[in-house]
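Researcher: Batch entry, complex prediction.
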Amino acid sequence: MALRARTRSARSLVVLLVLASLLTITVDYRQGQTGPLAGLGRVALAVITPLQDAVSKVIRPVGDFFSTLTRIPSIKQENERLREENQALRTSQIRISELETEVAQLQAIVGLVSTYNLPYQGARVIGSGVSNFEWSVTIDKGSDDGIRVDMPVVTGAGLVGRVVEVTGGSAKVMLILDTRSHVAARIVAPGLSQVTGDLQGQGPEDLDLDLVDPDVPIEAGATVVTAGYDGAVYPPSIPIGTVSRVVPDPTALDQLVTVRPFVDFSALDIVAVVLTPPSE
Amino acid sequence: MRRALSFAAVVLTALLLQSTLFAQVELGGAKPELIYLVTIVMAMLEGPASGAVAGFAGGMAQDFLLAQPKGITALTLTLLGYAVGLFRSYITSPSPLIPVFLVAGGTFVGILFYGLVSFLLGQFGLGLGYLLRVALLTALYNALLTPAFYPVIRRVAESSRATRVFRW
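Model: Structure tokens for the complex:
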């Protein structure tokens, strides 16, 4: 009997609760955000939010762990993507620093040739001499670009050499290092007016400057530039290098001076061919 | 009175955990529904009347934290608590897995019912496939959580039970 009464009371309780739920649904559904229930909801939210904050703070690590766990596939993908991006960025970083070097070289060249107001053609070194006894490079511009034999070649640092062979799209440049190379050179130093000589390549060694008047005192470190006689291959005053050694020889008719070039011939990349007018 | 307070504490704890910890746990687009679990376990332990009250209270509380038309969860859980409470008295198996299966089945049916009511009120526009998937996954997660929560709720229920012990 008691059990039945209990069952019945439970049933009516449920009916009551269901009705309350339905009433809530109806009222809330009809009134939306403006009704009294929405207000109650806001109150409930205001009450529970601080509690949620507190609990959140305590269990955040646990939640993070779970959400990380569930996001592992996407994290992997993201990792993959970032790796690729990183790779691409590194590549372009390298490219940028290469370009920066190139720009610096070009700026130097432009600085040099514009100082002397010379028309020029930029070119890239695409090969170097094959022989052990030949110091030359090949550049990627030729007669199609107005390049002819005997035109001087420079970088921003100074004189490189001269063109010795030309094809349509390329040219061979004999470096001033080559033992067959002769450059009319001038030593620039305070107090010296016209100390000139014949600068001859010595291969891997510093260049020799011959035919220097033995009576002129020359100091190491003095700058050597092209002499630029009329009709010479090289225009005047292009920097070549510095005097590295002076060997006085009282018995000789001249003194030996060695010259270390400004140009780093082991790292030639961009050069400029000076478009001198054809010598008659 | 003490009983009501401890149950309120259980419901509130479940609600807080649900809205903080389990709100972040989303596996396959679904998360556990602690209030369902609590309602079902309470109904199991305490019978249909307590189940219905717990469901109503917990559902109402959750409804007021959601922006949807309030009362749908309350309606669902009231009926769910009552039904599970009734259903429990027909189960004679002593298997310790009974709570797990009851939670799984109850959650599944409850979520479906919730979806149905939402749909009838024009509040559910995600399709039956989605609803079924969410119901299945939620049931699974709740079932997995049952071994952790069942003993706790049973302790609270037993410690607060009046001296007048009543068993079916």
